[in-house]
Amino acid sequence: MTTTESPDASESHADHAERTIRAGILSGAYPPGARLRERELSEALGFSRIPVREALTRLTGEGLVVISPRRGASVRNLSLRDVAELFDLRLSLEVFAARRAAEACAAGRGGDRLRALMEAAEDATRRGDVHEIPAANTALHAEIVAMTGNRLLQDALQPSLGLVQWLFTLTGGLDPRVQCTEHQDICAAIYAGKPDLADALAYAHIERGRGPSLAALAEVLPAE
Q1: How many other CB atoms sit within 10 Å of the CB of residue 52?
Q2: 62-79: per-residue pLDDT in tens?
Q3: Where does the chain hold its CATH 1.10.10.10 domain(s)?
Q4: Class of domain 80-217
Q5: I want to staple 145 with a disulfide (CB 3.0 to 4.6 A). Which of 97, 155, 170, 222 is the partner?
Q6: CA-to-CA distance for 171 and 214, rounded, in angstroms?
Q7: CA distance 66 to 63
Q8: CB atoms within 10 A of CB 206
Q9: What is the number of alpha carbons within 13 Å of residue 69 lying toward its C-beta?
Q10: pTM of the model
Q11: Which helix (H) or strand (E) is 22 found in, with range?
Q12: What is the DSSP letter of 6?
């Protein structure tokens, strides 16, 4: 993928490379299994290979890129099994996070950033921005985890955030308004400091998305 976009003034070359490569993966410009050659990427981006290498390393931490000693970097291959396992992981950790986030709000801690991110997700949904909706929804889920203050939980979920955004992008054909409404309900329970309700709504939200997501992806992803 060739890009002529310049980095923002406040953005380092590594940040710009990370954002650009991630966008290429999520858009399908770099399909699963595609090689990500440092030389070609650095030429397309217009700067040295060092920030490109750093960006690729960061993206391995999000689960989007794999690096092997002989083959170098490539886009992760994604299967229906991966998606099913991702839903299992989210049910185990994100539901717990919603409960803890509600407890934090009940104790008077946090909530302002979550409100801002929910507003951003609502705005993206109203505009039907197919690129911004997955990013906004992923940021919303990440903030709920951050609100727990549990560093081990954040470390456990960090490698899956890229996969979550990839999942949201691949299933962009599903009605984003449904997701937005469910997110609003979860956030309202968190703001109100209602752990049991936040837990139940988060569980229902994730489980409700499993079937439609797997069905939508069955035509484009291998089983294993």
Answers
A1: 28
A2: 889 999 988 899 999 989
A3: 13-75
A4: mainly alpha
A5: 97
A6: 9
A7: 7
A8: 21
A9: 0
A10: 0.83
A11: helix 13-27
A12: P
131 falls in which pLDDT band (50, 70, 90)? confident
**For residues 203 and 90, what is the distance between their CA atoms, to the nearest angstrom?**
9
Is 1's pLDDT higher than 50?
no
* CATH of the domain spanning 13-75: 1.10.10.10
Amino acid at 81: R
The predicted model gives 198-211 an average pLDDT of 96
Cβ-contact 56, 36 below 8 angstroms: yes
- Residues 159, 141: Cα–Cα separation, whole Å: 13
Residue with tokens 């984003």: 176
| Cβ atoms of residues 180 and 121 within 8 Å | yes
Q: Residues, the chain, total?
A: 224
Q: Do residues 4 and 44 touch, judged by C-beta distance below 8 A?
A: no
CATH 1.20.120.530 region(s) of the chain? 80-217
